[in-house]
Here is the input.
Amino acid sequence: MEPLEDWVVDGNAIGGMLLEVFGTEMTAATGTCGNCGATGPVAELAVYRPDLGTVVRCRHCDNVLMVLVQMHGVTCVDTRGLASLS
Amino acid sequence: MSPISRGFHRRHGEEAAAGRVPPGQYVTHDFPVLSAGPTPHTPLANWTFAIEGAREPKSWTWQEFQALPAETVTVDIHCVTRWSKLDTTWTGVSVDVLLGAVSYDTPYVLAFCDGGYTTNLPVDDLTGGKAWVAYNYDGGSLAPEHGGPARLLVPHLYFWKSAKWVRGLRLRDVDAPGFWEMYGYHMYGDPWREQRYAGD
Amino acid sequence: MAGTAVRGRLTWQTATVSSVVDETAKVRTLSLEVPDWAGHWAGQHLDVRLTADDGYRAERSYSIATAPGEPVGITVERLDDGEVSPYLTEDVRPGDQIEILGPIGGYFVWDPVDGGPLLLLAGGSGVVPLRAILRHRVREESPVPVRLLYSSRTWADVIYRTELEQRTQGVAVTYTLTRAQPAGWTSYGRRVDQQMLTEVAWLATQAPLAYVCGPTSFVESVAAGLVALGYPPDRVKTERFGATGS
Here is the structure.
């Protein structure tokens, strides 16, 4: 795995967005990657933030776990890449 | 009602001459580089550009690609997040040259890239002098953070269609959504009609 | 603690800036009056939203610099090419209103019940949530011993310097200044590396709890270094700020 670039953050940075979308604190929740099975706190996931949206990836295999897009004032979240989130 | 933050304003925001930029855009002199995933670093010795889904498969190595006729163009680019950058100069191979090397009768393309990014376009929007696979920007090699070694360049559509780290075009019968299109961005993306999100 | 973060309001609320303190030339702490503040845990952050009169909005996250029970404060570092931080560090005056969402975070938090010994590792403005942890520890009269390793560019860039220089029982502070050191400097003068961690960190056999906060490259390198010292990964908590100087 290449070392992550400096502008990549982690799930802590989207705690507010996740709070708004899920209605509850999510950074301590456990996510399981649907591709490689890696498990860990949402706070430790790799978070990319191009202006178009927020892309949350597995730190081990780069699989896309969650994508959040804000459109017309609403935040939409897709969690298809996660096997589980609890 | 959100309170107005006294004295707060957008950092940059130059108005451009009327008609020069699409509605809702402002002009920037920056070139933001934030990506949806880690920057790929494919060695040029391993790099290929492929056309898939035509009557015969076709691909070029980096050396073969560099030997294709290239053009230098100066174009404006418009990002869906509202910044526009004027008079950007690129050198690359016209997609007309690339698709001209195969025979096909499908109307749509999915561009695919290192790192897994994809974006969909009609063939008509990639031909007729409207699109390139660019490997130089502003007189120098395209930097990895800007999509190098080569990226798609389709300036008449929102810039997310100008896929970074492009490795090929897959010709298709159906217009299936690529990465951002799957997450709600517009299937076509015409900045002049402000087609930012699905349903716009 | 098991992730039972304080349940703040899930909606934006208006906060009034009550006072500002310049910590360094580029760093300012803003104290906020928040009418419906439900309290917070040490280490949490809040999101700030600014709205311009043309409707343009910008949002950023800032760690809460104060301990539970103290008035809410955030410490902001001015980024030269920033859009929000120059406004918050230069333009904002007491009486101004900003919108906030929070408190946020149930992972990067510490309370005395979590135990220790504590190893706090700060890169630049990464010291902000760690200072909330230090203040909370004092207010709770916790006996948990702490070592803080704080990396800054120069002595002038050290945030909360006076407070950290006070000898606090059970807290050992080590500085490393990566760009320039004052005359007579006897502590470290380089980026945190494995050798420095070996010299400063608690032994893995002491079952420490580590909190690493700062720019992404700092956090990645330090967290890996602690794991190399034998720290179990789930005893190393990380918060990456992205690309800022340290």
Remarks:
- Chain A touches chain C through 24 residues (CB under 8 Å).
- Chain A has a mean pLDDT of 93.
